[in-house]
Amino acid sequence: MSLAELRALGRSLVSVNALIEVGLLLACLGLSWLIVNRIARHARNVDAQRSVLLGRRVFDGLLFPVVALLLALGARRLMPLIDLPMALFKLVIPVLMSLVIIRFVARVLRAAFPNSLGTRLLERSVSWVAWGGSILWIIGVLPLIMNELDDIKLDWLAPKNTKREHLPTVLSILQDVLQVGLVMIVVLWLSSIVEARMLRGKAVDLSMRKIAVNITRTVLLAIGALVAMNMLGLDVSSLSWLAGAVGVGLGFGLQKITSNYVSGFMILAERSIRIGDMVKVDNFEGKISDIKTRYTVIRALNGRESIVPNESLITTRVENLSLADPQVSVSTVVQVAYGTDLDMLFPKLIEAIQRVPRVLSEPGPSVLLSNFAADGLELTISFWISDPHNGQGGVRSEVNLTILRLLNHFKIDIPFPQRVLHTAPADIPPAFGATPGAPSDELRR
User: Fold this and answer.
1) Residue 381 pLDDT more than 50?
2) What does the pLDDT average to over 191-198?
3) In the structure, how many helices (H) and strands (E) does the chain have?
4) Cis peptide upstream of residue 363 (ω within 30 degrees of 0)
5) Which residues pair with 377 in a beta bridge?
6) What's the gap between Cα 265 and its chain centre?
7) Once rounded to an integer, what is the mean pLDDT over residues 101-125?
8) Would you state the pLDDT for residue 6?
9) What is the pLDDT of residue 234?
10) Residue among 113, 114, 109, 86 nearest 5 (CA)
């Protein structure tokens, strides 16, 4: 808009007709909120963290500004029919378009890279560019800037003997960058949608769904890269030799990474290790929380996490406590005094241990006389549990308390260590080289 148009717009914003436009704008925003809220209620199973259209709340997704923009465009078409001049909607529509762009980029990046620090920086950059472009468009400066950028020729980017009208300009380069960025954002959006739908399914095993998600994301990104190169005017067929050379170089330089990727797909395909299994790798025991294409995350019961390369899970020994049977045997040891009636004690111990909540009745507990110790009879008590992911310390403590209560009930002693001290008579001469009156080595022992 020119300066005169800006002045006319300012006068229109303080007129009585502007109040009607404010009412129409509030009606558009309220109606869009109702529509999106109704859609959100019917989509309760959608993951809000990764939802691009709905977001965490009704108004922070992409769908709300899109619906508001469509209603605002409809109201703008309707206003000339009722002889109502436009003032406020000339400002609102560019603002809503900028909001659509910002929301689209931000929500897609958060869905594709939820924990990336660079995502916030890119979101802020896009926000500044979008809001700045809308402001420049409203005040009429953006077309002038675009014309100036179109006049700046970049002859060093073009081959020799290229005509001046065919030389790339700063504006054309910026437009190409925006087009490529838009294509990649759309590809990431489609990838996040496919990933969310595949992971929500229950008909296929989770490991197979992870394989499908990884393959789908890779294929979509490859297609997006090819489309972006065609938009830039690059001949894809001429880059085949370069791709071969890069592939050979990466094959030699990234052998370990490639091995981890292949191992990850083998683990997911064979299902020898699955998400949720209790495993023990290199003396680290825990539950598999996620299997990536390059590494596997194992979470211990105390909250610590271990990132294990997938190649290690293929080439080293891995103890899987949940592969064939989740039942795990747990044992504890106790000593009773010599002379205890073991024939009476064993059935009582088994009966008491079976009443512990997490102890399985089949296979049942067992009590064995494992050793004739120096201080008493050593008993080894074994029992089975079916939930090793909940830990073994708690159930072992419950079993030990049950054993202690039973022994106290029958007044069976748990023997303390006993030692006999022999003192030498006073008339025995001290050992050779010993100080008279000092205790001998035998006495010290």
Assistant:
1) yes
2) 75
3) 14, 8
4) yes
5) 336, 372
6) 19
7) 77
8) 61
9) 64
10) 86
* Residue matched to tokens 């296929």: 204
> DSSP assignment of 8-65, as one string?
HHHHHHTSSHHHHHHHHHHHHHHHHHHHHHHHHHT-TTS-TTT-SSS-SSSTTSSHHH
Phi-psi category of 437—alpha, beta or left, where left has phi over 0 and alpha has psi -120 to 50? Answer: left
Please, what is the angle between helix 170-200 and helix 142-151, to 10°?
110
Q: Is the dihedral of CA 238, 243, 244, 249 positive or negative?
A: positive
Running DSSP on this structure, what letter comes out for residue 272?
Answer: S
- Region of 161 (left: φ > 0; alpha: ψ -120 to 50; beta: rest) is left
Among the ranges given (207-221, 228-242, 330-344, 411-425), the one the predictor scored with the smallest mean pLDDT: 228-242
What is the C-alpha to C-alpha distance for residues 113 and 106, in angstroms, rounded to an integer? Answer: 10
Radius of gyration of the chain (CA): 38
The answer for 413, left when phi > 0, alpha when psi is -120 to 50, beta otherwise, is beta
Q: How far apart are CA 135 and CA 94, in angstroms?
A: 8
Confidence label for 64 from pLDDT (cuts 50, 70 and 90): confident
CB within 8 Å of 198: residues ≥ 6 apart = 209, 212, 213, 216
Of the candidate ranges 121-125, 204-208, 234-238, 396-400, the one whose mean pLDDT is the lowest: 234-238
Tokens, residue 171: 């504006």
Percent of the chain with pLDDT over 70: 76
Residues constituting the chain: 445
Question: Which residues, in sequence order, are bridge partners of residue 369?
Answer: 379
Task: Identify whether the C-beta of residue 274 lies closer than 8 Å to the C-beta of residue 321.
Answer: no
Q: Tell me the three state secondary structure of residue 316.
A: coil
Distance, C-alpha 17 to centroid of its chain: 52
First CA to last CA across the chain, in angstroms?
104
pLDDT top residue among 146 and 69: 69
| Bridge partners, residue 168, by sequence | none
Question: Residue holding tokens 């490859």?
Answer: 222
What DSSP character marks residue 429?
Answer: P
Q: 58 with 40: CB under 8 angstroms? A: yes
pTM: 0.47
Helix axes 88-112, 63-78, angle to 10 degrees: 160
- The answer on pLDDT for 405 being more than 90 is yes
Measured at the alpha carbon of residue 242, what is the angle toward residues 241 and 243, in degrees to the nearest 5?
90
Question: Six-digit token pair at 15?
Answer: 């007129």
Query: For residue 291, what are the β-bridge partners?
Result: 296
H or E segment and range at residue 297 = strand 295-299
Burial of 421 (0-12, 13-18, 19+ CB in 10 A): exposed
Tokens of 291: 């299997």
- Bridge partner residues of 299 (DSSP): 287, 305
Average pLDDT (15-25) is 74
Q: Report d(CA 382, CA 346) in Å as an integer.
A: 12
